[in-house]
Write a structure and sequence with these properties.
44% helix; alpha+beta; single chain; 2 helices
Length: 68
């Protein structure tokens, strides 16, 4: 039973549904494993919980908006 984990920012329900459907379809074709065998885990991360280049992602976005 293959497990696929995807981490991303906040997603809408429609985006989640589309991701699960298309990731499962593609992996099934590539791996030659039936779609019902797949588990897809989506992990949404808040910008305050992601560090990039020594800085929180939320702070980087805030600075980016302030510089414009």
């Amino acid at each position: 039973m293959p497990v696929i984990t995807l981490e991303a920012g906040k997603l809408t329900k429609n985006q989640k549904s589309q991701l699960v459907k298309e990731i499962t379809e593609t992996a099934s074709k590539i791996m030659n494993v039936p779609e019902p065998a797949f588990i897809v885990l989506l992990k949404e991360n808040e910008q305050d919980n992601i560090g990039f280049g020594g800085q929180l992602l939320s702070e980087r976005f805030l600075k980016g908006f302030q510089n414009n």
